[in-house]
Amino acid sequence: MTIYTTERCSFCVAAKKLLDSKGIPFEEVNLSNNLERLQALKKRSGLQTVPQIFFDEELIGGYQELVALEEKEGLLSKLHA
Fold it and tell me: What CATH number did the domain enclosing 9 receive?
């Protein structure tokens, strides 16, 4: 999993805590000081907000989508599918 974040983003913190609580390893990419990379991510996903969470190349979405996935399928089942 890869999670794109910025500093001072409460949803980013919450998403990382959820992943940590499930023991799911992730790579964090902090975009706070990298406007060029942030613009590239917005173009890739079409989203204007963070966090943006990807499983391999599949966009899961943001924090709310991550929570919904956990409630529906369980994140660990997604990883092992």
Answer: 3.40.30.10
